[in-house]
Design a protein that fits this description.
There is one protein chain. By secondary structure, this protein is an alpha/beta fold. The chain is built from 8 helices and 14 strands.
């Protein structure tokens, strides 16, 4: 982990414990994130559906090889997994395998959990604890007691390292509804939204300005169904939006805090579209895994997001093994 810029607060030396604890707006454990020559690149891998078995070895190897190829070609500063990564037991063996490319290539990675990540021999809290031992992992529970696992903010520092420039927010969209009156998939809950609002305000107060941000989680917001039908939406939209049955107002919070410029999800394997709503881009990744959960029609790949220091816009596109697709700049 890179040394923190300052070791003093109110005249007291920060202890080593605080260096590895995510409190308030401090960074998660793991390598620090910063712009390089005013550029920062993220690769979003999603829905690997990694099944740890000899039967699926060839497909598993293809998934890992694709990830390694795209990392070597795109040279990202951060990899984000947006859920349904390892969907069978033993989970530890699966997670060690899928994180191997980042570990060996020394690329920081962050993890959202999906609904199928909960269906193994480990709880998501246990998976997060295991991943925390990997020096390239930047995911943590920023504040204990908030619903879900892996809710945290990841500040991206300026090229010279003297200030925060952007923020990446990770949310656990949970698996399935736990409320007796609501069926279907899970959702980002109100205590998570309260945590985000508080953290966003702290970043604004600390930096004397609103920092542009991106958000990542697994299950799409209900508003994705609106974006799907818009004329300017770009990409494949051949599958309906499998959102939660209830809307807790996360997009409203993003709009009101005026910082999150893009939201990136997985879950629906035949969608990879992106479009804008209320000044926020809503985007799917491209399914990365070769083990199909149902009938799938898209070539495997990833979404790439390019950030520029000092800009509130971003560029993004889909990458497969052989081509770059659907290049998009938001906002236009």
């Amino acid at each position: 982990m890179k040394m923190l810029d300052k070791f003093f607060r109110k005249g007291k030396i920060l202890t080593a414990v605080l260096l590895f604890t995510c409190i308030g707006v401090s960074a998660s454990a793991g390598p620090g994130l910063k712009f390089k020559d005013k550029k920062f690149k993220i690769i979003q891998f999603t829905d690997l559906h990694y099944v740890h078995s000899d039967k699926h070895k060839a497909r598993n190897d293809s998934t890992i090889e694709l990830m390694r190829l795209l990392i070597e070609e795109e040279k990202p500063d951060l990899v984000v997994f947006t859920g349904d990564v390892v969907v069978s037991s033993p989970a530890v063996a699966g997670w060690d395998r899928v994180t191997q490319p980042m570990t060996e290539l020394q690329v920081p990675f962050a993890v959202n959990f999906g609904n199928h990540d909960t269906e193994t021999d480990l709880k998501t809290s246990e998976i997060l604890e295991h991943l925390s031992k990997n020096p390239m992992s930047v995911t943590s529970n920023q504040i204990e007691g908030v619903s879900g696992q892996g809710n945290c903010s990841l500040p991206i520092r300026s090229s010279n390292g003297d200030q925060d420039e952007m923020v990446v927010y990770l949310f656990d969209s949970k698996a399935y509804s736990e409320h007796g009156k609501v069926s279907g998939y899970g959702w980002v809950k109100h205590d998570q939204i309260d945590w985000y609002r508080k953290t966003s305000r702290e970043f604004t107060e600390k930096n004397k300005r609103v920092l542009p941000a991106l958000a990542f989680f697994h299950i799409p917001l209900p508003e994705y169904a609106v974006v799907r039908e818009q004329e300017g939406t770009l990409g494949n939209n051949t599958e309906k939006v499998h959102a939660a049955s209830i809307n807790t107002g996360l997009l409203s919070a993003f709009v009101e805090m005026n910082d999150v410029k893009g939201v990136f999800v997985g879950h629906d394997h035949n969608n990879d579209y992106i479009g804008g709503l209320f000044g926020v881009a809503l985007a799917y990744g491209r399914k990365t895994g070769y083990v199909p959960a149902y009938t799938e029609i898209l070539d495997r790949g990833a979404r790439v997001i390019e950030l520029t220091e000092g800009a509130t816009s971003f560029n993004t596109y889909i990458r497969t093994r052989s081509e770059k697709l659907f290049e998009y700049t938001f906002p236009y």
